[in-house]
Every structure is written in C-alpha cells, then in structure tokens.
Write a structure and sequence with these properties.
- This protein is mainly α.
- The chain is 64% helix and 0% strand.
Length: 142
C-alpha cells in the first residue's frame, strides 16, 4: 500500500518535522548546485566537501562526525532530491503523525547514521557491497 490519500491533517498532527527536513534538504541542494548548472546537479566539489568518506574516521574523526550529518542532506541531482522528498513527505508525514515530532526527528537521524554502519557490517561479515543512505529510514519504520 502506498500512502497518499486526502486525509486531513488536524491540530497537533501537522508534520512540522517533515516540512523542516524537506526545506533543509532543498536549501542544501540549492547551495550544492550553485557552482554548477543551477538546480540541475550537485557539484563534485560539494559532494567531496559534504559527503561522508569512511577514511575520515581514522585520520580526521571530527570531520567524519560532521560529514556523517551533512551527507544526509546532499543529493546528486534534481530527480534524486525530487523522489527522496516526495517519499519523505508520503511516508514521513504519516510516521510523524503516528510516533510524534521528536521521535520522527530522532528516527531520521538514527537511520541516517545507521546507513554508514550497516553496509560496513554486511561487507565485513559476508563480503556484500551494499550502499544506501538515510532515505531508507521511512521503509524501516513504516
């Protein structure tokens, strides 16, 4: 089942966290596209600056922590951000209505952080190379 009905959002059930996350993602996308073709694709420089690289953990731990969070908001191109934000809205607004604002924000960040550890664990235990990011968070919780 894909959610998306015309259910009214009443009172305290407004998806303020999801709206906040969508706005932040769009602002970061606009910023990361400013050096290339505007609003088309993130520049390679922005991806290198804000993207997470596992090697940072060993030779620059402070940078690793910062990029673990900033990389949750970097998108490759217009289609990438459009579909991520579309599904974030579809699933996230219902999740926020169910579990509340704070738990939704916590779920978003914990899922984003776990997206770095799970592929590493799968590779070290079963030699599986799988990469995914925080956009998977809504499927884990829905």
């Amino acid at each position: 089942m894909i959610p998306g009905g015309a259910e009214p959002v009443i009172g305290r059930h407004r998806p303020v966290v999801i709206v906040f996350l969508v706005v932040i993602n769009i602002i970061v996308f606009i910023y990361t596209t400013s050096s290339g073709i505007p609003l088309y694709a993130s520049s390679q420089q922005a991806v290198n600056e804000f993207g997470f690289k596992p090697g940072y953990i060993f030779y620059n731990p402070q940078r690793a922590i910062v990029t673990m969070f900033t990389s949750m908001f970097v998108h490759a191109d217009l289609l990438h951000i459009f579909f991520n934000m579309y599904f974030l809205w579809l699933f996230g607004s219902r999740i926020e209505r169910t579990i509340g604002h704070l738990k939704t924000l916590l779920l978003y960040f914990l899922s984003g952080l776990s997206s770095y550890s799970i592929p590493h664990w799968l590779y070290t235990h079963w030699r599986l190379r799988i990469t995914f990011n925080s956009s998977c968070w809504c499927f884990w919780s829905y």
